[in-house]
Structure formats: structure tokens, C-alpha cells
Design a protein that fits this description.
By secondary structure, the chain is an all-alpha fold. It contains ten helices and no strands. The N and C termini lie far apart (about 40 Å). The relative contact order is 0.06. α4 packs antiparallel against α5, α4 packs parallel to α6 and α8 packs antiparallel against α9.
Length: about 260
């Protein structure tokens, strides 16, 4: 009886998630059809739609993953999310903010493909995100916004390749991310986003180095991440985001 109830509730959750995605999609599509829509509103709606899909995947997708027998429902939700992220990534406008949103959608698409065990499709999505950001860097100059997004994308590529067992390739992507992120952290020391991205890349690199017994290098990079997040924790004691990142860095370093 309990199993049947859980299954019934999970189906309702899936239906609710899909209905919410449909609402978000309709809002975004309607907005794009308005030719006179202001750029800021277009960006806002694109971001709102992406975040709605993110929320559904985090809240409902993870819940479905916890219940036995819900694999089919989880797969359907992931496949639907993949379709929506693909649509969001198709941006006709050359506007830099919309292009940045497209790159973020491609990264989330890669996350979905990875959960579906479609590693090649995940790689392709991340390559497309990288190409999108590289084009923007060339056309608009070295804006920190795109350097940040490119650093995050390289970190994602490192994580994907590490999970696929391609250690050397993973290390290369992490190192590329760290090199670029260190530069923008130097020039923008008060920006949490930049330091968070750098710390995440350092943790990724350190954990891969741990797995291949490169202990001295792993300790160095994990200590750098730990120190970075500890400093942020002192500056922003009320930030739950910083607390989560600090805890993650402590665990990676082996404090807990």
C-alpha cells in the first residue's frame, strides 16, 4: 500500500512538474513573439524559464530518483527538460546577455544528458557552450561576464571527463578554467561569483589528482579552495551559498 501511494504521488509530482514547465514555456514563447519586447524583458524571461526548469529538475527529478520503480518517470522528465534547454539555447539575437543565457542553457543541457548517460551528447552541448562564449569574447572584448561563463564551462567539461575516466583531459580543462578565473578574481576581488567559480574548479582538479595518487598537487589545490571559501565565509557570514561551498571544500580537503 505504501509503495502504491508513493508511486501515485510520484506520478502526480511528475505531472505537476510538466505542467509548470509548460506554463514557463508558454510565457517565454509568447514573450519572444512580441517584436517590440525590450531586451531586458527578453533576457529576464529567458532566465526565468531556465530557472523554472532548473527548479523542477532539482525538486521533482531528485525526488523521483529516490523512489524505486520511478526510473521511467525520471527519464521522461529529463528528456522533456532536454528539449526545453535545447529550445532555450537557440537564440537568434546577437545580444550578449541572451548569448550568455544560451550558454548557460547548454551547460544545463549537458547536465541532463549526463544524467541520461548520454556522455557524447553532453560533450557536444558543452562544446557548443564554449563556442558561443568564445564568439562573444572575440566580438565584445574580454568582458569578465564571458570569461566567468567560459571558466564555469571548462570546469563542467573537466567534471564530465573525470566521470568518464578521462583523467588527463579532465585535468587539462580544470587547469584552463583555473588560469582564466584566477585573472578575473585578481581584477574583481569582491565578486562572489568569480571566487565561487575558481574554488569549484580547484576542488574539481584536486579531487581528480587525489584519484590518480597525485597527493601533493591535490593537497595544494584543495587547500587553496578551502582557504578561498574560508575567507569568503568571514566576509559573508550570512550567505547560505558561501556556507555550502565552504562545507564542500572542507569535505573535499578531508576535514570532516
Amino acid at each position: 500500500v505504501v509503495a502504491a501511494t508513493l508511486k501515485k504521488n510520484s506520478r502526480r509530482a511528475e505531472a505537476f512538474a510538466l505542467s509548470q514547465l509548460e506554463i514557463a514555456n508558454n510565457l517565454e514563447i509568447a514573450a519572444r513573439k512580441q517584436e517590440t519586447l525590450a531586451k531586458q524583458e527578453a533576457v529576464r524571461l529567458s532566465r526565468q524559464t531556465r530557472e523554472a526548469i532548473d527548479t523542477m529538475l532539482t525538486g521533482i527529478g531528485d525526488a523521483l530518483d529516490a523512489f524505486p520503480g520511478m526510473q521511467d518517470a525520471r527519464r521522461r522528465l529529463l528528456e522533456r527538460a532536454a528539449q526545453d534547454y535545447t529550445r532555450l539555447a537557440k537564440v537568434d539575437s546577437a545580444d550578449t546577455d541572451l548569448q550568455a543565457e544560451a550558454a548557460r542553457s547548454l551547460r544545463r543541457l549537458a547536465d541532463v544528458y549526463a544524467k541520461l548517460n548520454s556522455v557524447d551528447l553532453a560533450r557536444t552541448a558543452l562544446i557548443q557552450a564554449d563556442e558561443t562564449l568564445q564568439r562573444q569574447l572575440k566580438s565584445s572584448g574580454h568582458k569578465p561576464q564571458f570569461e566567468l561563463e567560459l571558466g564555469i564551462t571548462n570546469t563542467k567539461r573537466g567534471l564530465l571527463e573525470a566521470a568518464a575516466g578521462k583523467t588527463n583531459l579532465a585535468i587539462s580543462f580544470f587547469q584552463t578554467a583555473i588560469t582564466s578565473l584566477q585573472e578575473i578574481v585578481k581584477s574583481h576581488p569582491d565578486e562572489i561569483d568569480y571566487q565561487d567559480a575558481l574554488g569549484t574548479a580547484l576542488i574539481g582538479l584536486g579531487q581528480v589528482e587525489q584519484n590518480v595518487s597525485q597527493r601533493p598537487a591535490a593537497d595544494r589545490h584543495l587547500q587553496q579552495a578551502r582557504s578561498l571559501f574560508q575567507a569568503l565565509r568571514i566576509r559573508y557570514p550570512e550567505s547560505s551559498r558561501v556556507l555550502t561551498a565552504t562545507t564542500h571544500s572542507e569535505k573535499a580537503y578531508g576535514v570532516y
